[in-house]
Amino acid sequence: MIREISAGGVVVRPAREGWQVAVIEPQREPELESPSSVKGKRSQKRLLALPMGLVDPGEKPEQTALREVLEETGLTATLIAKLGDIKYVYVRSWGDKQRVFKIVSFYLLRYESGNIGEIKPEMRIEIRDALWIPLDGAARQLKYSGEKDMTHRAEEYLNAHPEA
Questions:
Q1: Model pLDDT, residue 29
Q2: Is residue 39 domain-resident?
Q3: Which domain, by its residues, includes 70?
């Protein structure tokens, strides 16, 4: 089985109403949006996720998290702590259709600068949009269960470390 190692970030910033987290709306595959899908019309609900990507050769996972956040959201951030790893198996929907065992390390990051959604044109093939949402309740809006867990861990960390 093929293995992939990725890293991502839970980027937070303080706001009047509490912490906010940066999320992305990935581009969907055309067949998922087609109203004439074989299985009928699919939901057009916005799919939200956390920024993440493959660890490049010679790169440390925390470096990957910072790079992916910048590429996918337009934000720069600083590392606060590692939140944990998500492990899962998926089947590639493109090319060879192979099963892949994936490990994604997630890091809690603090927003430093940049304007969310200012994404380079070459990243628009992967990312439709990036936006801030309240951290409290973010898990209800995210698509993937492992990422939902990471936002809960971020909340727990921030509650236990108010100096962050």
A1: 58
A2: no
A3: 2-32+45-160
Residue 138 lies in a domain: yes
Work out how many domains the chain is built from and give that number: 1
Radius of gyration of the chain (CA): 16
CATH number at residue 7: 3.90.79.10
* Tokens 């603090």 belong to residue: 110
Chunked mean pLDDT (size 10), the chain, 164 residues? 96 96 85 41 75 97 98 98 96 88 98 95 92 97 96 97 85
This prediction has a pTM of: 0.88
Three-state DSSP at 4 gives strand
Separation of alpha carbons 64 and 52, rounded Å: 8
Query: What is the predicted pLDDT for the residue at 93?
Result: 83
**Helical residues (DSSP H) of the chain, grouped into ranges:** 30-33, 61-73, 138-141, 145-160
Domain assignment present for 37: no
pLDDT given for residue 44 in this prediction: 58
Q: Is residue 38 part of a domain?
A: no
